Structures are given as C-alpha cells and as structure tokens.
Amino acid sequence: MALRVYNTLTQQKEPFQTMQPGKVGIYVCGPTVYKPSHVGHMVGPVIFDTVKRYLQYQGYQVTWVVNITDVDDKLIVRARELNTTVKDLAEKMTADYVDCLKKLNVTGIDLMPRATEHIAGMIEMMQGLIDKGYAYPAGGDVYFDVTKDPDYGKLCNRDPEQLEAGARIEVSDRKRNPGDFALWKGAKPGEPKWDSPWGPGRPGWHIECSAMSMKLLGKTLDIHGGGLDLQFPHHENELAQSESYTDQPFATYWMHNGLMRIRKQAGKVGGRPAAGAEGETEKMGGSLNNAINVAEVLAQHEAETVRFLLLATHYRSPIEWGDERLQEVRRSLDGFYRFFERYQRITGQNFYDLAAPTKHAAFKEDGNNKEFLAQVSKHRGAFLELMEDDFNTGGATGTLYELLTTLNRFADTQQLEGGKTNEQAVCDLRRGAEVLRELSQILGLFHQPLAARTGGNDQLVSGLMQLLIDLRAEARKTKNFALGDQIRKRLGELNVTLEDRPGGTGWRIG
Ligand SMILES: [Zn+2]
C-alpha cells in the first residue's frame, strides 16, 4: 500500500507525491502569541509532528515550518492591557508555546519564523501583486482585489459571494469590494510600524504566512496544514495571493485538522465550572472564553495522556475534550505502563532502552514461536496500513492495544514470570516489544518513563516502598495479618497498589 493523503482542495484522498523526490516541505500555521497556549493550540502540532515522524519513518527528508504571528490587533490590545510592549508579550507567549510543545513531545519543528523578521519579504510580495494588478494601495493600506482572481474560493469550493455571506469581513471604506482583504495596514498612533512604499504600517495576517512559507520552503509547499477554522478566510487568502504572485500551485496538499470540542457537564471541565447538558459538546477557543491553558491541564494530567488523546481521534474529526475523557485515556494507558514493568521483570531490560528501528523495513517472522510472531507482524501491518491511509492515527492507536494484548497473552501462556527460564520465548517477547516500541515512536508515545509517577524522586520512593513491602512481609510471616492489611490499605489510599507475584511483591501507582 502506498501513502494517500486527503486534500481539502480536491476533497479526496490522493496518492502522495512530492515536489522533489524524497523531500517534503510542511508548513503549518502557528499561533498569534498574545495569551498562554490553550489545549486547542496543541492539536495541529501533535498531529503534524506525527505526520512528520511517519514520513521520516518511510524515508523522507522532512522540513517542517510553524510560524509565529508576533504582530497583530489582538497582541496590540493585550499588550496595552498589561502595560507592556508587543515585543515583550510576544516573546513571553512564544516561550510558553515552545515549552508546551516540548512537554507534549512535539520535537519535529525545524523552523519557527517570526512575522516581524520577514517584513521585507512581505513588502516585496505586495509590490509584486500591485505590479501584476492583483492588489491596490488605498489610504496607507494595501488590499488584495478578490475580483481579479478567477480562482478565488477554490479551497472552500464556494464562490466569493457565498464566502462573504458566511464570514466576518472587516469593513473599510477604502476597499473596492467587500471581500477584499488587507495585505498592509497603515499605522495608527501608538502601534508598532515598519516603513513601506505606502507609508508606515504593518502586514496583514494572511500575507505573513505566504511570504514566510515561500521564503523557507519554496513556491510550492508539499503540505500546508492548519486547523479547520483557518480554511476561510485565512487559507483561501494565502492561496489566492500566493498563486497570483507566482503563477504556480501554492501547496500540493491542504490538510485540515478537526477542532477541539469541550464536553459540557454539570460539574467541572478542566478545573473550571461548565454549564450544559451531560454529553453535549461545544467548540473550544480563546475568543469563546472556554479555552483551557495547557499549563493548567498538565498540572493535573500527564502530557502523554494528552498526546494520546489527541491522536486517538482521526485528525479530521473533532476532538472531544473533558476530564472524564482524559481519565478514561489514562486508565487505558495503564495497560501499557504495566506491560513495561512486566517486560523489565521478565527480561531484566528497560522497555525504554529498547533500540527499535526508526526506518521502515520488512519484519522477519522467523523465530521460535512462529504463531506469536505472525500475530505481531499482523498488528504491525495493520498499524502501517492505517497510517498509509491518510495518517489514521485513531485506528493506529487501536492496533497498539491489540499488540499489547498479544504480548501479554504470550507472556501468560509461556509462563514467563514463573521463575522458569525459557530463553527462546523471552527472545521472541523481546522482538514483539521492539515492534511496540517501533510503532509507538511513530506516534511520539512512550519515549521516556513517566517521571511524575514517582514525583521524579525515583530512588527515595523505591527505597521507601521496598521498606514497606518488607515490613508487610515480616508482619504476614509472624501472622500479624491486621498490620499487613493496614499497610496495603493505607498505600491504597495514597493510590499505590501492591501486587503479589510469584517472584515477590511489586507496586505501582494507580
Ligand atoms: Zn497561515
């Protein structure tokens, strides 16, 4: 099977072909940095980080650009409210964004251009559009004339009148047509400004992305990504001005990710009170005032739980968000964490130290337990086939659970924890675990042990736990069962579970 990608432009899945053999350029619209990042901002980065990981796994050399909009109306207003400068606010909020990405294991972004560093390129492009008759200066502003572009509306598959009817359009008496959009905004007093042939001012939002993406990735991007809410007007406008300027396709594939929806419930959502009927959802957004800061979420939930939740839904579908859903995901992840511990007990090796392939190659089914390895190979094949089908991470996470069940069942039937040595079976289990690691790396999951589980104080905690386990064993030996039970119960109250196994007692959090 070969990779197929759903293209918003053609509204169908198409075989994946790149402009240059073996190379992929991805551009994803980044945030306007005026507030701390909310979880909705993380959807696109986590998805495209996974897209990049998969393309690399398939041997592509990928360059991924995410821009930072560091000058904008919202930033100007917010900086005034906080009595700070646009520059300082943007720097602080960019640092917050970068920190959130790191926590969610989004490691693939190669370049993060700031709009304010690319003003010259934007001016050059605007001048080109004026020279070609697509744009016009008016009273210190510059506008793109949508009536000059016969293709305008092709990304949304609608004609311009329909688009205008459905969108909030900035009103200005300087415009020739209501749908025209600003490429350059003449400066108002007290606003950040740059010199231009049309007087001092600043760029409009749409031109930023066109100028920066073409500068860094060339005239035609392989993949242009972003949230579904950006399709109009932002992406439609990016496309119109870019193709009018270069007379070449701006992007081969337009990929749009679904937006986050909050589950309404009578209690609280992400620590905040929420109203509404149980089971209903509503859109999340900074401007809707229901957005949940990433920092707030990560104070209560592990980053891996959040990443997994974002990938467990197909990227084109809306993502349902809520504490209940997070807890459900966390419980399901526990199965993996317990297997990693089990794997260590059986092999003496840390799952996180397994060196699994980072590039695709055929899986050899030859081994001692052929039936088991054939099953592992089947799950792996299913995972990869789902990824080839428009990066179906939702389906792919499902096959990880199936693989997990197969691994556990094998450890059970081979009695690998019974104290008997069965090196051949252990060797096969290791090969199965390597596949789990190989596939989870593609999703950016299970890359390191959860530090939060022991508060990062691993040595002390494990020492204290061993002390309690020894005391409980001592109590049971002297038939002081009441004390033994009390130790187990009190630990249970602290969310620590003791597990009596053939080789001794172990423990886990949760
Ligand atoms: Zn953009």
Explain what you see:
- This protein is of the alpha/beta class and 510 residues long.
- The protein is built from 15 helices and 17 strands.
- The protein has a four-stranded parallel beta sheet with strand order 4-3-9-10, sandwiched between helices.
- Bound molecules: zinc ion.
- The site of zinc ion has 4 residues, from helix 7.
The CATH superfamily of one domain appears as: Anticodon-binding domain of a subclass of class I aminoacyl-tRNA synthetases
Low-confidence stretches: 266-278
Question: What is the beta-strand fraction?
Answer: 15-25%
User: Count of DSSP E strands?
Assistant: 17
The assigned CATH architecture of one domain is Up-down Bundle
- Structure annotation, total helices: 15
Instruction: Report the CATH C-level class of one domain.
Output: Mainly Alpha
- The radius of gyration is 27 Å
